[in-house]
Specification:
Blueprint: E1 22-26, H1 31-42, E2 46-50, H2 54-64, E3 73-76, H3 84-98, E4 103-106, H4 121-152, E5 170-174, H5 187-207, E6 213-219, H6 226-231, H7 237-242, H8 252-263, E7 274-277, H9 298-302
Parallel strand pairs: 1-2, 1-4, 2-3, 4-5, 5-6, 6-7
Helix pairs in contact: 1-8, 3-4, 4-5
GO molecular function: 2,4-dienoyl-CoA reductase (NADPH) activity
GO biological process, one term: fatty acid catabolic process
Protein name: 2,4-dienoyl-CoA reductase [(3E)-enoyl-CoA-producing]
Length: 318
């Protein structure tokens, strides 16, 4: 079903700025990542989205393709980002069918609420594997193509004129703000996202000389997403929203606009950075995960496990 443009991007951007570009996105069937890709497709790009669930990923690809007449969007399911060979095969297919890769979004992730006592070794490892290993595998599999695209699309340091054909050679890692101040019941995700941030910063330093940029987008609470639904009980959403500095939670459009900014000419001198898109939410107290249903420190001192948490298994999609 075709969505209204305002559902996934603002009216700020000029049509066609990503013409003939190709974006490769893991977790691309998820609510946030699909909006990012849809916005890029609307502005001229073709895309390849990756996911675990075959039907969901292929259905999302067809839906994203409605953003622009003539768009090509490939959905490749049955891909586990923890397995490099899976990603390499997906990258090879993307390049064969779409001609290359100019932009990468590493968006596969997993999350659930659990204290350290409640968190098993396997559960911790699962999140680390999906987030950190998955992001590294995504980088390694796409790196040759990003280097090639980055080299073709360098901006002249004297005239500031981009090479013909626009931008390329850019990667965004989707992270979070949980580890900035420490968040109870989120040790696994906090450690994983800190690792992803460090990876992105290193990529910026090592591959800047090759024409690549690497940045992080750290979303805050984004409405109508699986992540927010898991971590915030529905009967507390109104109070939580009212307590936000801007009086609202984010929209997927906010993340998509940030993505366009970093991938277009506007982001040509932005690399090794973290773009926090959260309405200053992370600057509020981090002591009440679950917003009232999971009180800190009461539940820790009681020895109780967090009950009735949706999606206790780590998911590989945002």
């Amino acid at each position: 079903m075709s969505l209204a443009k305002t559902d996934y991007m603002s009216d700020t951007w000029k049509d066609g700025i990503f013409a003939n570009k190709v974006v490769f996105c893991t977790g691309g069937a998820g609510t946030i990542c699909s909006a990012q890709v849809r916005a890029l497709v609307h502005l001229g790009a073709n895309a390849c989205i990756i996911g675990r669930n075959v039907e969901k990923t292929e259905r999302a690809a067809k839906d994203i393709a409605t953003a622009r007449s003539g768009a090509k969007v490939i959905g490749i399911g049955a891909v586990d980002v923890r397995k490099y060979d899976d990603l390499k095969k997906a990258v090879d297919r993307c390049v064969k069918e779409l001609g290359g890769i100019d932009f990468v979004i590493a968006g596969a992730a997993g999350n659930f609420l659990a204290s350290i006592e409640q968190l098993s070794v396997n559960a911790f490892k699962s999140v680390m594997d999906i987030d950190v290993i998955g992001s590294y595998n995504t980088l390694k599999a796409t790196l040759p193509h990003l280097i090639e695209s980055g080299g073709k699309h360098r901006i002249d340091s004297e005239t500031l004129k981009p090479a013909p054909g626009g931008t390329g050679g850019r990667i965004i890692f989707v992270s979070a703000t949980l580890h900035y101040r420490g968040t109870p019941f989120q040790a696994h995700v906090s450690v994983a996202k800190a690792g992803i941030d460090a990876l992105s910063n290193t990529v910026a330093i090592e591959y800047g000389p090759r024409g690549m940029t690497s940045n992080i987008i750290a979303p805050g609470p984004i409405g109508s997403t699986e992540g927010l639904d898991r971590l915030l009980p529905s009967d507390t959403k109104a109070a939580y929203t009212k307590a936000q500095p801007l009086g609202r939670v984010g929209h997927v459009r906010d993340i998509a606009d940030a993505t366009i900014y970093l991938f277009s000419d506007t982001g040509s001198y932005v690399t090794g950075q973290t773009l926090v898109v959260d309405g200053a939410s992370w600057r509020m107290s981090a002591g009440s995960a679950g917003n009232g249903k999971v009180q800190y420190p009461d539940i820790l001192l009681s020895g109780q496990e967090i009950a009735n948490v949706t999606g206790k298994k780590a998911s590989s999609k945002l």
